[in-house]
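Need a sequence for this fold. Nothing fancy.
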C-alpha cells in the first residue's frame, strides 16, 4: 500500500475536473443542502403573495363593472333639421296648402341621457369633458317609474308640437279657434256651455287665446254676470253665466270651463319625429312651420340651431341641458344658436368656439333676429 501526499491527491483531482474547496468552511458554517420541501414552500409563499396582491384588483374590477352608481350621464344628443327629412319623411309636414320651398338648417337639439351606469362607465363619462353626471333622481324622480317619466316626456313633446303650430299660426295671422274641452260639473257654466263649443267673445270682447278668457273672467268678481258669445254645431249663440269664486283666489271670478286653442285652417300640420321627449323643441318646430308657410328662408344661408319651449302665444321658455345642446349643435356644423333668454348665463359659460349665441324671448323676436342676421345687422346676444 503506497502512501501519497496531499499535493499528489489534489493534482489528480484537477486532472479529473473536480476541485474540492474548503475555503470558508468552518464548524457551523457548512452549506445546507436544499431539499424538495423547502423549494415548494418558497414557491407557495410567492404565489400567496401574488394572490394577496391581485385580490383587491379583482374585487375592484368586478365591483366597478357590476355595481351601478346612483348617477345618470348627460351629454350631447342628436340634432334634427326641422326643415329636412328623417328616414325619408319630412320632420315637419304640411298638407292641403301650398308650401314654400325651404333649404338650409333650423336644427333642434337634444340631450342624451344614459342610465344604469357602472362605476367605470361613470368615471369615463366624467373624465370625457363632453358628458356630465347628475344624481339619478334629477332625471328619474324616486316617486315615479322610468316608464312614467318617459310617458311624461312624450306628453310634453306632443304638447310642444301643438303649441308650436298655434304660435306659428298666430304669427302668420291665420285663424285659430278656441274650443271648450271641459266643463266643471255643477260649475257656473254648466248648463250654458258644452264641450266642443267654440268661444268667440267673453264680456263683449273677442277672444282667441285661453289667456284672454282667463283675463276677462278674472277681471270680474264672484256673483257678476258675464255674457258669452259662442258657436255650437256651426250656429252662433249667446249665453250668460253668473260667475263663481275662483278656488285659488276667492276674490276673482270663476267660469268653470277649460278653453283650448285649435287650428282653424284648411290644411294639416304634422310632426314626424319619433323617440324624442320633452318640451324643448317647440321654438324650432314653430320656426319651421313659419318658414314653410311664408316666402323666403329664415336661415338665410346660416346653419342655425336652437332650443326653447314655446306656448301658443309664442313666448319662449327655458330648457335644461344647454351646455350639451351647444356642443351637439357645433359638432353638427351650426354657427348660430338661438338661446332662451333665461338660459343665456349658462350658455355664455359653455359656448364652443365658432358658435354665435342669439338671445330670444318670443317667436317674433327669434324671427326678427334671423332676418337681421340675414341682412348683416346685429341681433340680440347673450351678454
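Here you go.
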Amino acid at each position: 500500500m503506497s502512501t501519497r501526499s496531499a499535493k499528489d491527491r489534489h493534482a489528480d483531482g484537477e486532472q479529473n475536473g473536480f476541485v474540492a474547496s474548503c475555503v470558508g468552511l468552518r464548524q457551523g458554517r457548512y452549506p445546507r443542502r436544499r431539499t424538495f420541501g423547502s423549494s415548494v414552500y418558497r414557491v407557495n409563499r410567492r404565489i400567496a403573495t401574488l394572490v394577496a396582491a391581485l385580490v383587491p384588483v379583482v374585487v375592484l374590477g368586478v365591483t366597478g363593472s357590476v355595481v351601478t352608481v346612483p348617477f345618470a350621464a348627460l351629454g350631447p344628443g342628436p340634432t334634427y333639421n326641422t326643415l329636412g327629412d328623417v328616414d325619408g319623411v319630412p320632420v315637419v309636414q304640411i298638407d292641403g296648402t301650398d308650401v314654400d320651398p325651404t333649404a338650409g338648417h333650423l336644427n333642434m337639439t337634444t340631450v342624451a341621457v344614459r342610465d344604469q351606469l357602472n362605476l367605470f362607465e361613470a368615471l369615463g363619462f366624467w373624465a370625457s369633458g363632453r358628458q356630465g353626471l347628475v344624481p339619478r333622481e334629477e332625471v328619474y324622480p324616486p316617486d315615479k317609474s322610468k316608464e312614467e317619466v318617459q310617458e311624461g316626456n312624450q306628453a310634453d313633446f306632443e304638447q310642444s308640437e301643438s303649441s308650436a303650430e298655434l304660435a306659428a299660426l298666430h304669427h302668420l295671422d291665420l285663424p285659430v279657434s278656441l274650443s271648450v274641452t271641459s266643463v266643471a260639473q255643477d260649475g257656473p257654466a254648466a248648463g250654458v256651455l258644452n264641450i266642443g263649443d267654440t268661444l268667440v267673445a267673453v264680456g263683449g270682447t273677442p277672444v282667441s287665446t285661453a289667456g284672454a278668457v282667463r283675463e276677462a273672467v278674472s277681471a270680474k268678481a264672484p256673483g257678476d254676470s258675464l255674457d258669452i258669445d259662442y258657436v255650437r254645431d256651426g250656429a252662433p249663440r249667446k249665453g250668460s253665466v253668473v260667475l263663481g269664486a275662483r278656488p285659488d283666489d276667492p276674490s276673482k271670478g270663476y267660469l268653470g270651463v277649460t278653453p283650448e286653442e285649435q287650428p282653424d285652417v284648411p290644411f294639416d300640420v304634422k310632426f314626424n319625429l319619433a323617440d324624442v321627449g320633452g318640451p324643448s323643441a317647440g321654438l324650432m318646430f314653430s320656426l319651421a312651420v313659419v318658414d314653410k308657410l311664408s316666402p323666403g328662408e329664415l336661415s338665410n344661408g346660416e346653419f342655425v340651431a336652437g332650443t326653447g319651449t314655446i306656448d301658443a302665444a309664442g313666448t319662449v321658455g327655458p330648457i335644461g341641458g344647454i351646455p350639451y345642446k351647444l356642443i351637439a349643435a357645433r359638432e353638427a356644423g351650426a354657427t348660430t344658436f338661438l338661446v332662451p333668454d333665461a338660459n343665456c348665463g349658462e350658455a355664455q359659460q359653455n359656448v364652443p368656439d365658432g358658435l354665435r349665441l342669439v338671445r330670444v324671448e318670443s317667436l317674433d323676436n327669434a324671427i326678427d333676429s334671423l332676418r337681421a342676421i340675414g341682412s348683416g345687422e346685429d341681433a340680440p346676444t347673450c351678454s
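For context: Confidence is low (pLDDT under 50) at residues 1-31, 57-65.
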